[in-house]
């Protein structure tokens, strides 16, 4: 790609124009979007598994209905995002093969086990809370189909976050055992939730280019900080203790608005989980492989039907 083409493309980005699938775009821009949107879609689909584990164990019909709706939403988000990625010339089969082979990533957070009902509340509150922080800016992503998909996704994430927060609030107004269950879940999910935002900016391979192309609007650390500053007061209101002994209020942060300084994140754990060494990685991929193989007959039937219809049209 010559310099003039790249400069003209960057001028469109700088003018806040939306790039559409049929527009001329640098190969790197297309590749970054296929990578990010594909991995985002994988995260939504794999993310159905931890919570799916509790649909049959929900404590009431109301909780079961809300959790069922949430898990179904996540499936829909995944299909939305796979469709957005397909506009860039990659196929569903290709993306699925990359997930199953380990070539494509999905969010590390979904490789942790859901050990109690409180996990379902904490996930809704923290994981979907973190997802909202990350996905609101994506509504202004320079690539049209991704930005438009995010608008509906964010509306549904807000419901996910509220139902999770309400579960935790109910537990914290319950018995000592319920309070202990909620605190235990927060202890296990707090740090993995911070890792959802990705490596520190200094370690982020893609941030600089993704921000220049207005795919990423805020850096990993900036969004992580926003999440921490919004969530710590909620934990305090709930009567929960964030498991970070180094957490301290710093009045000078955020241009004098103040904010919480957090302790060191265990990046060894992060990379171990990202590279497949988490507690649930094998289970998640095994479940996705089984779903893909069990669904082969549907794909074959749909293909056969499409061929028959095409043949009828020609005849
Ligand atoms: N888990 C797994 N891999 C991660 C990760 C995480 N939490 N954070 C970063 N990575 C990977 C990146 O994918 C990249 O690897 P790659 O080159 O093989 O793709 C590498 O670590 C370096 O990270 P960078 O910061 O350089 O990468 P990005 O610029 O892509 O930033 C990101 C990472 C912020 C996650 C960005 O990709 C993004 O915003 N993605 C879209 C949102 C998304 O995927 N969220 C995941 C959760 S979905 C969800 O929560 C659904 C909700 O309903 C529960």
Keywords:
315 residues; mainly alpha; two-stranded antiparallel sheet; 13 helices; globular; binds 3-hydroxybutanoyl-coenzyme A
Portion of residues within helices: 55-70%
Which regions are unreliable across 5 or more consecutive residues at pLDDT < 50? none
Overall 3D form = globular
Can you count the beta strands?
Answer: 2
Rg on CA atoms, Å: 21 Å
Percent of sequence in beta strands: under 5%
Tell me, rounded to a whole number, the average pLDDT. 97
Order of helices and strands: HHHHHHHHHHEEHHH
Structural class: mainly alpha
Task: Give the strand order, joined by hyphens, for the main sheet.
Answer: 1-2
Question: What topology does this entry show?
Answer:
Elements: H1 3-14, H2 27-46, H3 48-52, H4 61-86, H5 92-101, H6 117-138, H7 144-172, H8 176-195, H9 207-212, H10 220-238, E1 248-250, E2 259-261, H11 267-277, H12 281-294, H13 296-314
Helix pairs in contact: 2-4, 4-7, 6-7, 6-8, 6-10
This protein binds 3-hydroxybutanoyl-coenzyme A (3HC).
GO biological process, one term: phenylacetate catabolic process
GO molecular function: phenylacetyl-CoA 1,2-epoxidase activity
Organism: Allgaiera indica
């Amino acid at each position: 790609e010559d310099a003039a083409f790249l400069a003209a493309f960057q001028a469109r980005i700088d003018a806040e124009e939306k790039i559409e699938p049929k527009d001329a775009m640098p190969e790197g821009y297309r590749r970054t979007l296929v990578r990010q949107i594909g991995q985002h879609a994988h995260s939504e689909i794999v993310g159905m598994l931890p919570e799916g584990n509790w649909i049959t164990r929900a404590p009431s019909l109301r909780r079961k209905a809300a959790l069922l709706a949430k898990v179904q939403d996540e499936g829909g988000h995944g299909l939305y995002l796979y469709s957005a990625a397909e506009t860039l010339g990659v196929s569903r089969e290709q993306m699925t093969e990359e997930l199953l082979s380990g070539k494509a990533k999905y969010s590390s957070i979904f490789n942790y086990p859901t050990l109690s009902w409180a996990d379902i509340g904490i996930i809704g509150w923290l994981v979907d809370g973190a997802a909202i922080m990350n996905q609101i800016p994506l509504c202004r992503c320079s690539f049209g189909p991704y930005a438009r998909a995010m608008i509906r996704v964010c509306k549904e994430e807000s419901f996910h976050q509220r139902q999770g927060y309400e579960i935790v609030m109910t537990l914290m107004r319950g018995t000592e055992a319920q309070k202990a269950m909620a605190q235990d879940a927060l202890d296990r999910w707090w740090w993995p939730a911070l890792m959802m935002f990705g490596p520190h900016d200094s370690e982020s391979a893609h941030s600089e280019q993704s921000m220049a192309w207005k795919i990423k609007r805020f850096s990993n650390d900036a969004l992580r900080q926003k999440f921490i500053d919004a969530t710590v007061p909620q934990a305090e209101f709930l009567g929960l203790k964030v498991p970070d002994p180094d957490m301290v209020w710093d009045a000078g942060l955020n241009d004098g608005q103040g904010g919480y300084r957090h302790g060191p994140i265990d990046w060894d754990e992060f990379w171990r989980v990202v590279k497949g060494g988490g507690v649930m990685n094998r289970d998640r991929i095994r479940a996705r492989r089984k779903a893909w193989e069990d669904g082969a007959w549907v794909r074959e039937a749909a293909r056969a039907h499409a061929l028959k219809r095409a043949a009828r049209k020609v005849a």
